[in-house]
Specification:
The protein is built from ten helices and ten strands. By secondary structure, the protein is α/β, with parallel strands linked by helices. Helix 6 (169-184) runs parallel beside helix 7. The protein is globular, with a radius of gyration of 18 Å.
């Protein structure tokens, strides 16, 4: 569970987040939606505790995010950022990075660490890539390996910035299934989406962002009917055309 209470964040003299109060619940998937530049990625950074707020409060599983060490945060929250470097290592080695928060230095991997890494790669549909180097992989293949790393971190809270990037339709369907499984395991899942149909298939809640604020939060059908999503995106959205599988179940 991640809670923001009247949280604001500024950078370079500019306001990135403006007085946001929101609760992301356990066992739920929340989709962050909005136009480019609406501060969706900034919200993920604040929710993870990586970005320090200028006012308000952020609590991760009831703990003050500002009081947590980097290692403590990494045991509570896993984050898949939008942009990443491509290390010159194998896919298995990258997925193994998910175990780092639980290891001391120098890192000595146990049999359990190796088994969990293999399982995470299978869950992300990337096990066949385990011996290939990251630089050799396509964008979609790399994305699946990074998803495996996040799964392998095994945190209660999972934050994903555009996880569907580079994924083809078949892999997008697998992503929807994976996010649902994480929620059923009791995890709090928050993900940035640009594809409303895809978000509607897996999200319990839509959070609409505009100019650094959350302008609507609730079940997908309710948020779409409110008109807030269309206003944020600058388009007219007909509600029934966007009702996804997940929203109908709610």
């Amino acid at each position: 569970m991640i809670e923001l209470e009247k949280a604001s964040f500024s950078y370079g003299g500019k306001r990135g987040l403006d007085n946001i109060s929101v609760l992301f619940e356990d066992a739920k998937v929340a989709a962050l939606l909005g136009a480019n530049g609406s501060s969706k990625s900034t919200l993920l950074g604040v929710a993870s505790g990586r970005l320090r707020i200028s006012s308000g409060a952020v609590r991760i599983d009831g703990k003050d995010a500002s009081a947590l060490s980097a290692k403590e945060r990494s045991q509570l929250v896993s984050v898949l950022p939008q942009s990443r470097n491509i290390p010159d290592i194998t896919a298995f080695s990258l997925a193994l990075h998910g175990r780092f928060p639980y290891l001391s230095y120098p890192r000595i991997y146990s049999k359990e660490d190796l088994e969990k890494t293999a399982k995470a790669l299978r869950d992300a549909g990337a096990y066949e890539l385990k011996d290939r180097r990251m630089a050799e992989l396509s964008g979609g293949e790399r994305q699946r390996v990074y998803l495996a790393m996040v799964i392998n971190q095994d945190t209660k809270n999972v934050l994903l910035d555009e996880p569907a990037t580079f994924l083809d339709l078949a892999r997008q369907a697998e992503l929807v299934d994976m996010l649902g499984r994480l929620a059923r395991m009791g995890k709090c899942v928050v993900a940035v989406f640009h594809d409303i149909n895809l978000a509607a298939q897996c999200a319990d809640h839509f959070a609409v962002m505009r100019d650094g604020r959350i302008t609507a939060f609730g079940k997908p059908a309710e948020v779409i009917e409110s008109g807030a999503l269309g206003e944020a995106l600058g388009v007219e959205i007909t509600a029934r055309a966007w009702y996804g599988v997940k929203s109908e179940k709610n």
